[in-house]
Each structure stands twice: as structure tokens, then as C-alpha cells.
From TrEMBL:
Name listed for the protein in its UniProt record: SulP family inorganic anion transporter
GO cellular component: membrane
Sorted UniProt keywords: Membrane, Transmembrane, Transmembrane helix
Organism (species): Phycicoccus endophyticus
Domain STAS: 410-498
């Protein structure tokens, strides 16, 4: 994909390295993201039923790998809840080694899908589904914080309020340091100095004290093993790619830059293969952390993504005892602000709702409802696209019109067909002719119509056949280009009748 000069300057690693100000932004953004990744990775490890190290190592290897291989600079990939839900049954029923084999196979499937051009399917995702995706993501991020705000000591609430105030107000004074980082450091110092008994990162799970090493899955190389892990690997591959490509599209819009979705697809695959070989649970793009990186911290290059992975490993292995002291209240506040910033508030304004077609608003709401109900962004997007497709087909089906055209030819009736003929719009075509009352010669003029599929040709055949049963002859005229070629190739050959 061609890039414009401003895009190269915005996402260039070399340009960032030459600019101390931009480099500081990238470094600090990576640090903030790393801090936000730790409790998430631990939580997703619990969902998957594995040791916290498996999720933390996955976040490290995914972030570092995708920083080099991915097609969307500044996007964060790590262990995710969607992937954790897909692979959890493998761990529960077959153990960790089968999980690692599943992750490796899932990565290989993603590479294959990338080579087959799966990224091009993104063009079929309507804007209403994209808005629903963004809004449902914001809702899920917010809902994920509620467990950290219920059944907790009273001190948690003023701490969250204080962190929110810092994140909102500090950028009005200075943007030299990311406000989320100031909130995290400030609240950690406060809770330690005041000896406040509040939930901390250390309460979420034990942090590792060693580096990840090569861990080849110890599974029998048999067809039975492949049959066991293949369904989960395919599910992981599809969910991971869908979330990653949707996130990449969202970041494209926020940063006003383009990205290579094909490269991102196979980059995700290779990153998962690497992750599986180093004992990680696999993952994909993380939308919440990506928003922290891109929107809250202002990062734009691969440097922030790479450093997020490196800082994560350093923090949990070298500074684990310090990181364990970070109050969850600080991270909750960061994620709440990410949720607020991610939601497309314009989409629910009364003025917008009045102008927007009801069908598009309905698709957006369906997408949000399904995602929130299933806690699965991929399922919501698929349902949203299907709903949009059905509504589009229903709307277009009524745009085809058949009208009588005056003619001086005796014994002849001319019909003009206008619009797009495809499986939805051509269904009613057969009913719009006067088979009994028309003369012996009927002309169907398709100059203002286009034939898109076999259903349309079959409908024209049905019209011709019904006139023939009345002893009348039909002449189809006006077809050009692909419509003509399709009609000539299929007409009279779509049924077994001779």
C-alpha cells in the first residue's frame, strides 16, 4: 500500500530516534502500557487455567515479535481474554503442552489465512459495525473494572477518584509526561507511605522471577493430536485475526495513517508461533492497551510496542517486588479513562440518531448487544456484518423497477427493467409481467439494469418460460459487458429441464 510522506514521518522509527521529544513519548508510552499489561495478563492466565507466567511471557513475546513483524505501528499485541476463552478447554482437558501446540498451530493457520488474502475481507465491514465494535469495546473495558470496585476497602474509591483527577487535569498543565504514568507512580507512593491496605498487582497472582525459555510442546506427533487441537487452533486464529484487523482499522482512523493488514495478519501468526514455542498462551491485538498507547500517551511507532514488551519483562522479573505494590485503583482509573475515550459519544447524540438511518443504528446496537452478551468481540462483529448484509439486501431489493415502455411496433410490448438484479432483488421480477394480457411478442429491455448472479438469470429464464407456456416469445435486449456474458453463459442451463 502506498504511503504519503506525512505517514512515513509519523510512524518512522528512525525519525523518532532522531527526535528526543518523540523518543521520550514512545519510551514513556511503552512503560505505561507495560504496567497496564501486567494485571490483564495475570487475569487472562486465570481464565485460561494456566500459571500467571504463561500469560506474562505471552504478552512479552507477542509485543516484541509484532513490533518487528506487524503491519500496524504502535498497536499492542499480547495475551487477550478472547484467546484465553478459546484455548481454556484445551488446558482443562489435555494440559499445558497441548495448549502450546494449539498456539503454534493457530499461528501457522493465521499465516496461511494471510497468504490467502483474509485481510481483504475487512472492506466488507460496514461503518455501523465498526462503530458498534468500538462502543462495545468501551463497554467491555469498563465492565472489566467493576470487579475491582466491588467488595473492596473504602480507601479504593478516593484513590480511583484521585487518579482520575490526575489523568484528566494534568494534560491541561503539561504533556511532558503521560498522565497515566504520573497517576500510577503517585498512587503507589501514596499507598506505600500511608500503609493503605488496598488491593495491589501482587494480589492478582505471583510474578515470575526467570526469563522465558524455549519450550517445545511435548505432544505426540500424531493425527489424533492434530484432530484434538485443530478446532481450537482454528478458533483462536479466526478470533485473533478479527480482533487484530479491527483494532488496526481503528488505529488507522485515530492516527490518520494507513497500515498493511496483510502484513499484520501474517505477523500475528508468526508472533503466535514464537509465543507458543516460548511457553506462552498466545494472543492478539489488545484494544484497551492500544488505546492507552496511541490515544492517551501519543505513541505512533514500533518503538513503544517493542518497549512495552521489554519493560513488561524487566518489571516482572527484575522489579517484581516493586510492581507488586502498585494499587489496582490506579490501573482501574487508567482503564476507565480509556473506556470513556474509546466510546464514540457522537454516535449516540440525539442529533446523530435523528439523521442516521434506523437500519444502521440498529446494526450498531445489535453489534454492541451481542458483544456485551457474549464477551466476544469476534462474535459480535460477525453478527453485525450479517445483520448489515441482510438489511442491505432487503433495501436494495426494492430498488429494482419494471415499467412499460410505449412502442409503435404492433403486436409488441416493451418492458424496461431498471436497477441491480441479484438474488434478493430478482425474486419479485417474475411477478411484474402481464403474461395473459400481453401480445405475442415481448421485449425485456435491460439497458438500465445489471445482472449480478445466477439467481437473476434464473428469474429471466422463468419469465421467458412463463410467456412460452402462453405461446408468446420473449426477447431480452440491452445487456452489456459482464451482464451480457453472464446471461449468455447461464441462460437456459440452470435447470435440468430440456
Amino acid at each position: 500500500m502506498a504511503r504519503f510522506p506525512h505517514e512515513e514521518a509519523t510512524t518512522s522509527v528512525l525519525a523518532a530516534l532522531r527526535s528526543p521529544r518523540r523518543l521520550r513519548t514512545e519510551v514513556l508510552a511503552g512503560l505505561v502500557v507495560a504496567l497496564a499489561l501486567i494485571p490483564e495478563a495475570i487475569s487472562f492466565s486465570v481464565i485460561a487455567g494456566v500459571d500467571p507466567r504463561v500469560g506474562l511471557f505471552a504478552s512479552f513475546t507477542m509485543a516484541v515479535s509484532i513490533a518487528v513483524l506487524g503491519g500496524r505501528p504502535a498497536m499492542i499485541s499480547a495475551a487477550t481474554g478472547a484467546v484465553a476463552l478459546v484455548v481454556a478447554p484445551v488446558v482443562r482437558e489435555h494440559g499445558l503442552d497441548y495448549l502450546l501446540a494449539t498456539v503454534v498451530l493457530g499461528g501457522l493457520i493465521q499465516v496461511l489465512l494471510a497468504l490467502l488474502g483474509v485481510a481483504r475481507l475487512m472492506r466488507f465491514v460496514p461503518r455501523s459495525v465498526m462503530v458498534g465494535f468500538v462502543n462495545s469495546l468501551a463497554v467491555l473495558i469498563f465492565l472489566a473494572q467493576l470487579p475491582h470496585l466491588t467488595g473492596v476497602p473504602w480507601a479504593v474509591y478516593p484513590l480511583v477518584a484521585a487518579a482520575l483527577a490526575v489523568i484528566v487535569l494534568l494534560p491541561r498543565v503539561t504533556t511532558a509526561v503521560p498522565a497515566p504514568l504520573v497517576a500510577i507512580v503517585g498512587l503507589t507512593a501514596l499507598t506505600v507511605a500511608a500503609v493503605l491496605a488496598v488491593p495491589t498487582v501482587g494480589d492478582e497472582g505471583a510474578l515470575p522471577h526467570t526469563l522465558p525459555g524455549l519450550a517445545l510442546p511435548d505432544v505426540p506427533p500424531t493425527l489424533e493430536t492434530l484432530r484434538t487441537i485443530a478446532p481450537y487452533a482454528l478458533g483462536m486464529a479466526l478470533v485473533g485475526l478479527m480482533e487484530s484487523l479491527m483494532t488496526a482499522t481503528l488505529v488507522d482512523e485515530i492516527t490518520d495513517t494507513h497500515s498493511s493488514k496483510t502484513r499484520e495478519s501474517w505477523g500475528q501468526g508468526v508472533a503466535n508461533v514464537v509465543t507458543g514455542l516460548f511457553g506462552g498462551m498466545g494472543g492478539c491485538a489488545m484494544i484497551g492497551q492500544t488505546m492507552i498507547n496511541v490515544r492517551s500517551s501519543g505513541a505512533r511507532t514500533r518503538i513503544s510496542t517493542f518497549l512495552a514488551g521489554v519493560f513488561l519483562l524487566v518489571l516482572v522479573v527484575v522489579l517484581g517486588d516493586v510492581v507488586a505494590l502498585i494499587p489496582m485503583a490506579a490501573l482501574v482509573a487508567v482503564m476507565v479513562m480509556v473506556s470513556v475515550g474509546t466510546f464514540d459519544w457522537h454516535s449516540i447524540r440525539p442529533a446523530t440518531l435523528r439523521r442516521m438511518p434506523r437500519s444502521e443504528t440498529g446494526v450498531m446496537l445489535v453489534t454492541v448487544a451481542v458483544v456485551v452478551a457474549t464477551r466476544n468481540l469476534a462474535i459480535g462483529v460477525v453478527v453485525g456484518v450479517l445483520a448489515a448484509s441482510v438489511l442491505f439486501a432487503r433495501r436494495v431489493a426494492h430498488l429494482t423497477r419494471v415499467r412499460e415502455v410505449p412502442t409503435d411496433a404492433e403486436g409488441t410490448k416493451v418492458y424496461a427493467v431498471e436497477g441491480e438484479l441479484f438474488f434478493a432483488s430478482s425474486n419479485d421480477l417474475v411477478t411484474q409481467f402481464d403474461y395473459v394480457g400481453d401480445p405475442e411478442r415481448v421485449v425485456v429491455d435491460l439497458t438500465a439494469a445489471r445482472v449480478w448472479d445466477a439467481s437473476s438469470v434464473a428469474a429471466l429464464d422463468a419469465v421467458t418460460h412463463r410467456y412460452a407456456t402462453k405461446g408468446k416469445r420473449v426477447e431480452v435486449v440491452g445487456l452489456e459487458g459482464h451482464s451480457r456474458e453472464r446471461h449468455e453463459r447461464l441462460a437456459g442451463h440452470l435447470t435440468g429441464a430440456s
